Amino acid sequence: MPIEPLGDHEADIAAGLLGEPVAVHLGPKQGWVNRVWFGAGTRSRAVLRLCPLTDSAAGFAREAWCIEAARDVGVPGPYVLGVGTEAETGWGWMAMSWLPGRMLEELPDEDRAVWEVLGRYAARIGSISVAGVGEGFGYSGGSPVYADWGAWTAARVEEWEGGTHLVDRGAIDSHSHRRVREALTKMSSWAFEPRLCHGDLGWDNALVTGDGAVSVIDWGGASATRLHMPELSNLFTFGSEAALAGYLAGAGISAADMEDIRADVDAYRVWGNAACLLQWLPESTTPWNDNARTAQGFLRGILQRVAPST
Question: Tens of pLDDT along 146-160?
Answer without folding.
Answer: 457 888 888 889 999
